[in-house]
Amino acid sequence: MRNSLRGLSCAALLATVAMPFGLSASATDLEVTHWWTSGGEAAAVAEFAKAFDATGNKWVDGAIAGSGGTARPIMISRITGGDPMGATQFNHGRQAEELVEAGLMRDLSDVAVPGKWKDIVSPSSLLDSCTLDGKIYCVPVNIHSQQWLWLSNAAFEKIGTPVPTNWDEYVAAAPKLEEAGILPLAMGQQPWQTTLAFQVLLVAIAGPDAYTAVFGDKDVEIAGGEDMAKVFEAAEMARSMSKGTNVQNWNDATNMVITGKAAGQIMGDWAQGEFAVANQVAGEDYTCLPGLGVNEVIQTGGDAFYFPKVDDAEITAAQAELAKVMMSKETQVAFNLKKGSLPVRGDVDLSAANDCMRKGLDILAKGNVIQAPDQLMSADDLTLVNDLFVQFFNDPSMSAADAQAQFTDIVSNAS
User: Fold this and answer.
1) How does pLDDT run across 326-350, given as a tens digit for each residue?
2) 254 and 208 share a domain?
3) At what angle do helices 191-205 and 208-215 cross, to 10 degrees?
4) How many domains does the chain have?
5) Helix (H) or strand (E) holding 185
6) Which domain holds residue 113?
7) 365 vs 298: CA distance, rounded Å
8) β-pairing, 131-132 with 135-136?
9) Same domain for 114 and 176?
10) Angle at CA 238, nearest 5°, toward 232 and 241?
């Protein structure tokens, strides 16, 4: 987290001591807002609620339907408007910078320091994203990487083609899939999904260093260069392969893969939760390709919970309990196995991990990691990127070269 203020307008910024984990001094209702509403997400968040309720307190679920882009403005408006919830989800990175700077978020150092979070959170960049001026303001709860291609084994069996092992093999199978009435690539219409697909293609085709240079260093030369031209050409191919998806939400696109209506989806590892709810088995019913089978990396983004500052000793104590619960070994395992993400603790037992989660753990162990876009670029600049790719994926008349020129302009003016 950086000290500069970005992501919100300036106008928007106009007791009981917590007992040890599992022993609450009194029962307190704590409203927790988040945007986890799909089947897999609901199953995962229920693990948080169950663990928190076991402390004697009560999780009051404040799910907001839609996506982070829909939920965040509502959450921010409540906090800045004097109606804060007990805890709220954001992504790792810079989304809550201005709320922290404005003194509206609680410092969790009184929980994090005794809990030795600096020793157990891995990679350390996750906790760094929660830290400002040496104080810790959020609980990182998982490592989510968007660098995955999910494939329906049944779709490729239907066309008599081996399940692809990389992006090029996948693209080559597209004509045959279309002939069989199978959509090659499912892609929902939420703005962030098209940007996600582009970012995954960037890392796979141009490489992790190019991704970091463009989003992190704002390198205009690379953004407008030949390697990025290949990325935009691949995005143009993805646009063609996904034509006719006709669904809005990411999980509806995932369901198309689960049911064999679509052959694949570029989506984060949270898609695993949907496969699990549908009782599909990794490596048997579906195949996962980290880094599109080209550049296998894990993105160290994910979800974190912030706790608005309140003048209520009971709420403050309940906030501390929830923070401890979310970081506990037991909850980290239970939540992440359901969510499809990796735990932020490096000292937990994941013997129950499936084939895809093991792939992610192996990549993480090798240190092949990159930061998430939210950790590298401001919310305002990412909004411009989102807008560009919504237009690109919905307007076949926009060429790859035109899109690259506009993208390069955004990078050149990024803060």
Assistant:
1) 999 999 999 999 998 999 998 988 8
2) yes
3) 130
4) 2
5) strand 183-185
6) 11-143+301-365
7) 10
8) antiparallel
9) no
10) 150
